[in-house]
Amino acid sequence: MTIAAFILILLSALLHVTWNLVVKASRTGFVSYGVMGIPNVFLWAAGIFCVTPVAILQLPWPFWASALCAVTADALYGLALFSAYKRMDMSIAYPIMRSLPILFTMIITSCLHLGSALSVRAMAGMVIVFLGCVLMPQAKFSGIKWSDYVNRNMFMVLLIALGTTFYTIFDSQALKVLGGTAAAQGVSAPMLSLTYYGVRAVLLNAEIWGIVALTPSFRATVPECLRKHGWKLMGAGLCASGTYILVLIAMNFVTNVSYVQVFRQMALPFSVFAAVLFLKEKATWPKFVGVSLILLGLILTALPGNASPVSAPPQVKSLEVTEEMLWEESVHSVNGEVLK
């Protein structure tokens, strides 16, 4: 893994924990997800549409299909997230909802042959990360019961994990389609990522506010949410947008999107410490052991040799998108660089 890649994911993890802390402390509902997106539309989307060299309206239908699937999964994620945070501690919900997508993404990408094949060591590392995440919410080792994971709250967490899994996969596919179009030739990878995020921000917020408009209980909470938490949530929205923009940029340097899911779990130790420090939640030995397992799994996944080296082609001569396609100015030789 390159230093630049590590810094991107580390910053993304810190921003992700920050906006989750704000949302949890605010104890607000799904309307907050729409309020969070207000500055994104104006600051990111409007600005990007003015400066991007990509002819957005001329992009092919596979791009739009992938983008729409991604924002639909993201909306599902938001609905489940705000429901879970109303009923659960952050130190319980956060580790599980961030760990399940590791296995989900690994299984789906392997079955559908999306990206390079994962090595046995990389898969073992991902499983260890998953086990550590599952262990962290427990109060004590002797009290671990499956019934703790089979209830309504865990169903919400499962929906969060599924939403995360599918928006990650569809975002990755949308970026690949975008990078393979004639309109993207000669455009740097970071600019393509920012362009996609602008499109994504508009689509996501249109979908969220559409859900709010069609749901009377959501509509009724809009004035109070804006009055009591508006500025705070908009600040959290900027953190959230920064989080995923860094993720999208890092996607240019990975050969399998499962690596993205694993390295985003660097947020987990930060989230536990932040929840204990700022939200006054309890610190337990299972949480500390779980953090140690997560770090071990990350190390195993990051070791060189977990993916075959891939070189970026100097020029894309066909509009066909292949799994090995990397954009101009992306990576020269990634040697299993586990960027996300």
Question: How are the SSEs placed, and which strands pair?
Answer:
Layout: H1 3-26, H2 31-51, H3 61-87, H4 90-111, H5 120-135, H6 152-179, H7 189-214, H8 216-250, H9 258-263, H10 267-278, H11 285-302
Helix pairs in contact: 1-8, 1-10, 2-7, 2-8, 3-6, 3-7, 4-5, 4-6, 4-10, 5-11, 6-7, 7-8
Most strands sheet: none
Shape: globular
**Beta-strand segment tally:** 0
Q: How much beta, percentage-wise?
A: under 5%
Radius of gyration, in Å, reads 20 Å
Query: Low-confidence parts, pLDDT < 50 over ≥5 residues?
Result: 308-340
Helical residues, percent: 55-70%
* Topology pattern, helix = H, strand = E: HHHHHHHHHHH
Distance between the termini: 10 Å
Indicate the structural class. Answer: mainly alpha
- Can you count the helices? 11
**Number of structural units classed as domains:** 1
Structural features, described:
With 340 residues, the chain is mainly α. It has one domain (3-302). It has eleven helices and no strands. It has helices spanning 3-26, 31-51, 61-87, 90-111, 120-135, 152-179, 189-214, 216-250, 258-263, 267-278, 285-302. It is globular, with a radius of gyration of 20 Å. The termini are close together. Residues 308-340 have low confidence and may be disordered.
Q: What's a concise summary of this model?
A:
Helix content is 69%, strand content 0%. It is mostly helical.
Provide keyphrases for this structure.
340 residues, mainly alpha, 11 helices, disordered C terminus
